[in-house]
Amino acid sequence: MTPLVLIPARMAASRLPGKPLADIAGEPMIVHVWRRAVESDLGPVIVAADHPDIVQAEGRAGGRAVLTRADHPSGTDRIAEALSGVESRAHDVIVNFQGDLPTVAPHVLRQTAALLDDPAVDIGTAVAPITDPQEGEAPSVVKMVGSQHGPDRFRALYFTRARAPWGEGPLFHHIGLYVWRRAALERFVALPPSVLERRERLEQLRALEAGMRIDAALVDDVPLGVDTPEDLEKARVFFSEEKKQKTFVALSRPK
At what angle do helices 106-113 and 29-40 cross, to 10 degrees? Predict the structure, then answer.
């Protein structure tokens, strides 16, 4: 596989306007996300932005960004536009790494990309066990219903905002990270929104309704998604603690 990592970023988030440029530990959030993607060592990393300020911020950090239209209905549509203008057909796998996930561990991206080692899989994503009972009931937490076919791998059967599946047993929190075969991505964006996609407000259901296979990697825990001012403060605390830990390790090394 020859992956390309694309990070969609838009300024007009309703709950946290301008969040790609929100300051975390002295740098814009989008720069932290870009660094996590680079550390995964999957391939080239490009930010697909809807505003020149994001492009400029990424450039100052040494990264690459391209400007896309501001009216895309989803991040998937945004990366499809970016893909058409930035790279040749050499990249057959496209990683859609959300621009509001600054705490994702790089190994999670690699683990998700490895799902496409199976030629039958069109799209890879990630899930983590739900440990908080309130999350199991919350519509804001998307759940995956899937068939397990390995210690850390599922075939996704459905995604929902409801508590599912019913009965005793674990529930799985879907993480908004996708690894696409290029052909699957091109087919997806050419399809109209599906019935279940519109009802649940979950675009991945368009792929399932079209017969595409989605597999999910089971990862340790859910990364922090920054959607609100409260999430932003949590991210700032996370990076502050990470910086303290790195400083401690550096000072503890023998000279």
Answer: 50
